[in-house]
UniProtKB/TrEMBL annotation, chains A, B, C, D:
PANTHER family: 4-HYDROXYPHENYLACETATE 3-MONOOXYGENASE-RELATED. Coiled coil: none annotated. Residues 6-267 form the HpaB/PvcC/4-BUDH N-terminal domain. This is 4-hydroxyphenylacetate 3-hydroxylase. GO terms for molecular function: oxidoreductase activity, acting on the CH-CH group of donors. InterPro entries: Acyl-CoA_Oxase/DH_mid-dom_sf, AcylCo_DH-like_C, AcylCoA_DH/oxidase_NM_dom_sf, HpaB/PvcC/4-BUDH, HpaB/PvcC/4-BUDH_C, HpaB/PvcC/4-BUDH_N. It comes from the Bacteria. Residues 278-474 form the HpaB/PvcC/4-BUDH C-terminal domain. Pfam families: HpaB, HpaB_N. Keywords: FAD, Flavoprotein, Oxidoreductase. FAD binds at residue 189.
Length: 506, 506, 506, 506
């Protein structure tokens, strides 16, 4: 029952969400040109599940049901699962730029852990509800939007202190058959062309703010839901070599007293576990982001090499060009390596699934977040200045200029000028257009800002082990733990995980 | 006879250049909306010359004529001139993003030196021709486009080896009354709305390529000139808070057998001096670029501070936000400091003018070229993720969404949501839109790529002095110079320049 | 037959090498105080093989003999072997700073591959000779010094062009029973307290220089061998909290017509395979270096945390201190992650062993080489300025000053001043003393300089795959390979390796 | 009455301070070999004042007395003074590594401003006392030690909260004829061979801690003063090519109830002005540090170039070597440029002197503090690995090894092996020995840690101007200042300073 891209697009017709793009109501999401690149991006995850070469990466067997599901909906049971997920995300993103659907995976895995933990603490039955929902999602091969980042209002105030409580989504009313939620999620990836939203809290809330600790599933067209979205990519722009085909919409999603029946509610006031869910989701998501941005790196490396060639340069003879390409490779593969290590040193969760190692996962995301700018720099560096004055595609068919431009904009004689212009426009599209700016920004802030990663790295790192090592070397008795309440005793790695057979690197 | 911005715009009507933008012929440059932001940018340099507060910076007395001229057309005679020019460029660029006209200054100063030197070597009369031209340009208060970067073709081949010689501009024919030039300049800043072009060589050519060592002035509408340009900024886009007002067009300029009379020819085959002109121009230009990008830094610093405020954060309480702002300040002011030092340690040219110190000038440009990406990163960092999903301006007037969006997108209660959105869109415009990408790319490659700066730094640095210092400390006899043919004996600074009274920093 | 540290030290008495340290002849290496810290460092690898907690990491079963051997002498057969070796190196180096003996491992693994390949190309019997030698080394549990880096002379000339051929080790004479070698290896780790040297070429030599392509095993006290070594660590210095115990000697080793019997000769003129040996060794060695320097990172992290505590600061309240520690962690774990990924994506060698992935291995080494300086910076940053004026240990027992110094140099009241001084001196020892300088330098140049890593990264990276990806996205036919002779078609990863169960991270 | 180096050394005999070095009491500072390199370093500032070539930089006319004084004791009256001081510091430090005496200058200039301000606020007569003292110091041509950094104890507590108040120097008793001070200053540069100490507070103290806001002058041998110092440089070490000649001692100075007569007291409880003094001193000092470390850069650049030459490499042919040298130059000259700009944009103080611009001064110091590590890296990079195994000088005269080592350690044939070894040892001395470590640490923490600089940059930067710029561009009314209490309205630059004629750059 795995859909392909065409079936996915058709499946969207079953929904009638209230969507606005550029101030205009969208009549049919499946047919809206401004959203097509985003739908195409998600579509890659569907098509590749049917591609014989990619099946081992793109599908997996769900342990709780025994069924084969799309990798983007699978609960990881081994470190091999994590490594394959990482590779799968890189695979679909190097084709689509950003295939978006890995967020469904990240949220499902976070919920699998969090519902189990909540039941243990509170005697609730969230995990069973969730398993039923998980299997339904897998069987229908859905794509879920993650509605996590609240609008937040004044960042120096707690949710309950805000002048307008709707800047955070919260439980407005508890009814016998379910809950009513209200508020705004500010950044929802792919919002218009999801099947359902997973509403999740974006931090540990205090006891007073218990109503903000809510997690539930809501169809995109549930009454009371409004989506205000941006176009996906650069649809319809002739110069958009890549992002006219593939892109990503992001949307603000307003929940105006939306009713959610109990079987779709997975958290409703348990603040501690809400925080755990946020963190657990974030760890899975940052691990996925590593794969996604490595795929973007693959695109830049390939485009850079083609541009160098078209300019008539050779990295083997021009050291500064080779060094720049090595920089780009080093950036990409060193954060990717953190994703690999995070898979290898995964942690078994009491729920039965595995979680990527938090330290490596956060370090990888921190590196990609801050180095995406250097990736753009290198792409510009190796491409030369041509892009600055590159005439647009309208000029290609201007009889007054086309002939002379073609002659003088040629680089190497054996590479047609069209090819040179095409790759120059690709690099422009990826790194100079607003699509390029978007890649930077989403890399920096997506999945949490660098500050959040630093907090997690510090919180999870086994500093205490290193302290004891040094005390032993100094022939000291080790200090009493009580004196070091502020340091975690922790470990960040596990012994005895099943460890992965990689499929291939890129 | 100093024009203001309105007069400048009107003056463009006297020209009828053959200009194409987006594949369409431009009927009237002065009225073309796609070029208006570029004309506005240049206009700032005209208007500010009349502004009492700015006159000391924006005007100067030309020594050779005794007349008061626009700073952007002045030949520097003292280090104070250089410092004031640097400050003037920062001033006009922090308002306009890039006021473009400083390129006129850079080229005129390079030519002042190069024509003198050429006459000395070859007994020509270029300097007199040039002085006459200079005074005319100053009297008419023109803006000159710098047509320097050739299309270059296969970068591994010399001009004369190219399959198509037209990838470099060259002398096609020498006539009794002048020369005929032909070829393509690939990146000409502000091409459509210049009064004239200064055609200049982009490197030292070999003897065989003497015809490529040509420098002359050509009106933008001289017969045979075609300009294929990109729109300036983001004209007409409602979300373009800044770049709908101010921008920059760049164009490819094709010279198809253009006749230039002798009195406008300033170099015609003198290859060595052509190289000197390239270097001299580059040194002046890199010095100006420092001021320009510092102005861009001012914009980012101001926008960042406003965004932080609108988000409800305070750098004095949030250390990571303050640190990020300090990074942005440190980047901006440390490359600006190189511009100041380059002014202070200027070098007297035999022609009677001064040249910025080449080492500091190149270091400043190298720093801004490679750190513009970090500037964008900091701007994104302090702004938070809002920009990713920020609804466009069309949404502002959508009755179905406007009210609820306004409520939930507010940050601090005492700052209207419109103000928050406005500054978020400004940052998006400056750093996420293609305008942002363009700032990066032009910073990296404009005025020569980083490789060119490194070469110049090495070539001009007084390494030999340091070597001698160390040899003295080691009580060694200093090695014979002959053994070190590959190292320059050079000095990079002068004693006894007149040194500047700064006006103010920013 | 695995020795422990005491047995290893005793075993050195069976050798009588000609060793000079500080201009003085060493009578007994085993008893020489100036070498003791180095012997202690190697000793850790022996002792830990007997430690129950460490045995799984520190020993392994050699496939060709079925015997249990020290991990530092084992030929890797699976990716798990590589991961365990990486972890083992980190383990012994975080205790000893640098345990040195992993070089034996790196050379043996390189030779295992290279002798097999040479036999295949030249019909020689090197692999059998080598296997016999390998088993003997394992049975006797020896430590081998790697004599690879030649003195090199004028770096702009090939070996055969040098005025003095002895700046490279080479075959002086070929005899019926063996060869005579001569020349100097400039940097041999732990030279005086090795059992034997493995002499290896340091690059691919040309055909004319075939005599320089020589590899053989030579006992440290073979006639004609002279070792001029530096003291190991800071023996006898009271302030040397760490490096009076553990250190590393490096030596120049002069081979003055040393005879080597055939059964200890593993390469004798096969220039291509000599280059392969160099590269293969380097890949293994760079992988090991990653583990070694991660262990150094562990020391710094622990020492930094103790110093912060003793100063009365808390990273959870002082953001800039926490950020600095996170930097240190990020540097350490991100290059370590490259070692993990290099293990996971290992490559099967035709000889039956596995080689770490070359791209990840080189990236990891490149990162540690260039970031060790930042590691020192962070350690200094979090420690504060105390170290600058810290009175030496002689002062601790000065009755005139000891009492008052103790009082005023105390930080937190609950931490004795001795403890604060001790950790301050440890940080001084690790990062300010010449031991600290040595760590930097050896990290930068050990195992090849950054330039060498960049070359290897570029040579091994599958750029062609990325180019094809982009061409497919551009709907282009993929260019003919012939046109891209300069790019490797390569892959850098393997499918289907057995992948490791990590033991634990640190 | 300007002394030369010999007279300075002799003048120390007039003092009999209680000094301990390495646990041993020093009988005669002037004759103590362990302190000689430090005395030599200071001596350079004396000798150069008599050197005709350097007199313009090394002397100046004191406005308040009309007398010619050593630049290191001069109160700056113009921006030219500041630039010349910067150049003078670079000059003496590139010869001596660190000439130390500029700290006298920095403290005198800070006190000139602070005493004037205190008198204005409190009606005291500190400024007159100070002027009398200043002229005496200048007339006697003294060198003053800056005793500012307190021992600090538990850094999370205020001085008055410390278990032991003596971790900060404070007024123990106020007597009719003077004050009695007590406590410990932890890091005093050159302590043993100063003439007097200027005791100064290291921060703004609270009202309760008014007794800690004390500033006064104390002869090094005042009763109750004990100095516990480290050796200066590496005295007596044969391998210490540089630091056996020139070095720096730092000392802990204990004030055990030291009486100070009123005419040497310049602050006694005025907490606000104590904070101003700290800041003012710090600004002058950071400006000086820029010159000092640029001089260190000169040494490294020269040594690097010599090493490259001796290795047989040529930066013009080996791009990666040239790039590394350009990095070193760029680092050095870009922080130096901040010193130049700080001079140019100096601020007139109400006391009549000038202060370097605080933003540029702090940025320059921040850059040098964090980039000194990269300077070491580059020095190692261009030198190659030889230093790791370089035999020590004892080996040079070992008849058993000397001949063969000389032959094989030669690089280029036309450069004697002694020369190669000498420069290798120089680089080792400067960057690998504990002297190198000391340079790093003192650069990072000397004059305040990076955190302090960031605070000052933020506090002094005219953020408000940039905010207003952006608000104007957005056509907004500018926000009321009241709403922005947390932001300074400030300016960081002045109009109309006299601006400097540089002498020469290096």
């Amino acid at each position: 029952m795995l859909m392909d891209a065409a079936a996915y697009r058709e499946s969207l017709r079953a929904y009638s969400p209230r969507v606005f793009v550029n101030g205009r109501k969208v009549e049919s999401v499946a047919d809206e040109p401004l959203l097509a690149p985003g739908i195409n991006g998600v579509g890659v995850t569907y098509d590749f599940a049917h591609h014989p070469e990619h099946q081992v990466l793109m599908t997996a067997r769900q342990g709780t049901s025994g069924k084969t599901v799309n990798r983007m909906l699978h609960i990881n049971e081994t470190s091999a699962d994590l490594l394959h997920k990482l590779e799968a995300v890189r695979l679909v993103c190097k084709v689509s730029g950003c295939a978006q659907r890995y967020l469904s995976h990240d949220a499902l895995n976070g919920l699998f852990q969090a519902t189990k933990r909540t039941d243990g603490e509170h005697g609730t039955d969230y995990h069973q509800r969730f398993l039923a929902y998980l299997h339904e999602v897998q069987n229908r091969d859905l794509t879920l939007g993650v509605a996590m980042t609240d609008a937040k209002g004044d960042r120096s105030l707690r949710p309950g202190q805000q002048a307008n409580r709707d800047v955070y989504v919260h439980i407005k009313e508890r009814r016998p058959d379910g809950i009513v939620i209200r508020g705004t999620k500010a950044i929802v990836t792919g919002a218009p062309y999801m099947h359902e939203f997973l509403v999740m809290p974006c931090r540990t809330h205090t006891r007073e703010d218990a109503d903000f600790a809510v997690c539930c599933a809501v169809p995109v067209d549930a009454p009371g839901v409004t989506i205000v979205a941006r176009p996906a990519g650069r649809p319809g722009e002739a110069a958009a070599k890549f992002s006219a085909k593939y892109g990503q919409s992001t949307g603000v999603v307003i929940f105006d007293n939306v009713f959610v029946p109990h079987d779709k509610v997975f958290l409703a006031g348990e603040t501690e576990e809400g925080g755990f869910l946020t963190t657990s989701y974030a760890t899975h998501h940052r691990h996925s982001c590593i794969g996604a941005r490595a795929g973007f790196g693959d695109l830049l490396i390939g485009a850079g090499a083609l541009m160098i060639e078209a300019n008539g340069l050779d990295p083997n003879r021009h050291g500064h060009i080779r060094d720049a390409m090595v920089d780009l490779i080093t950036i990409t593969e060193s954060f990717y390596a953190c994703g690999v290590a995070s898979s290898v040193y995964c942690v078994k969760d009491p729920a039965g699934s595995v979680m990527p190692d938090a330290v490596f996962s956060n370090i990888g995301k921190l590196l990609l977040a801050t180095k995406i700018y250097d990736m753009h720099k290198v792409a510009h560096y190796v491409s030369g200045g041509l892009i600055v004055a590159l005439p647009g595609p309208d000029e290609d068919h201007n009889p007054d200029t086309q002939a002379s431009l073609s002659e003088v904009l040629m680089g190497r004689q054996d590479i047609a000028v069209e090819q040179r212009l095409e790759v120059a426009r690709l690099i422009e599209d990826l790194t100079v257009s607003h699509q390029g700016g978007w890649y930077s920004l989403i890399s920096l802030h997506g999945g949490g800002s660098p500050e959040a990663m630093k907090r997690e790295i510090w919180r999870n790192y086994p500093v205490m082990e290193k302290v004891e090592l040094v005390e032993t070397l100094l022939d000291r008795g080790v200090l009493d733990q009580g004196q070091r309440a502020s340091k975690q005793p922790g470990r960040c790695c596990a012994t005895g995980c099943d460890v992965p057979t990689p499929s291939k690197m890129s």
